[in-house]
Amino acid sequence: MKDWLIEHKLTVIAVVFIVFGGSYYFYVNDHDEPAPMNSIIGENKLQAEGIETESKKQTNPTAALPEKIMVDVKGQVKLPGVYQSNSGERVIDVIGRAGGLTDQADQTQVNFAEHVQDEMVIYIPAKGEEGVAAPGPSVGSMTVSGGSGQKQGKININKADEQELQNLPGIGPAKAAAIIEYRNTSGPFKVIEDLKSIRGIGDKTFEKLKDLIVVN
């Protein structure tokens, strides 16, 4: 045996070196193997998505806040006045805030499904009350505040034609014609109270008109 080892000494040394070298190679590879590239990319993507989601959570609540607007409710409601509303609300919502309609309200002249606007005037006429609903974004017999050609949405009784005058509550074709005739014969109205000089326009009707008309 001793003689065999001496004769094959180089072979034995080579085998021992190969065994130790192979063991060391596998040991190093098992502990230092780098993470796959796909795994690294996936982790980075998840982190980026998490940051983006958190950013949206912080910004979305402010963007969702509704716009605050003011609406003037007049006529046949239980609690007339100026009410705060939100953009997107409808006429029926604001009327409910004003206590609802009275028994004398003429619901046929009102579009309850209309969206409200800032500075809007909602006028609810009484049953049998004269007046023609204004075209466009209006409610009942009232034009919306801020309309073009009129000061703050009010009708200039010295310049309005018959059709424009009939947008006022209580003013039908006959009274509109009488207003124009007065202007032609007596000159322009000096103050809005002069409107009571027209036959058929008394204190009760004037109360409904005084906040809706101008003379200059």
Describe the protein in words.
- It is a single chain.
- This protein is 41% helix and 11% strand.
- It contains 7 helices and 5 strands.
- The chain has a 3-stranded mixed sheet, with helices on one face.
Describe the structure concisely:
The chain is of the alpha/beta class and 216 residues long. The protein has 7 helices and 5 strands. The strands form 2 sheets. A 3-stranded mixed sheet has the order 2-1-3, with helices on one face. It has a two-stranded parallel sheet with strand order 4-5.
Rounded to the nearest angstrom, the distance between the terminal CA atoms is 132 Å
What does the main sheet amount to?
3 strands, mixed
Bin the helical content: 40-55%
Shape: rod-shaped
Topology:
Layout: H1 2-7, H2 9-32, H3 37-63, E1 68-75, E2 81-86, H4 91-97, E3 120-124, E4 155-156, H5 162-165, H6 173-186, H7 203-209, E5 213-214
Parallel strand pairs: 1-3, 4-5
Antiparallel strand pairs: 1-2
What attributes does this structure have?
single chain; 216 residues; alpha/beta; three-stranded mixed β-sheet; two-stranded parallel ribbon; 7 helices; 41% helix; rod-shaped
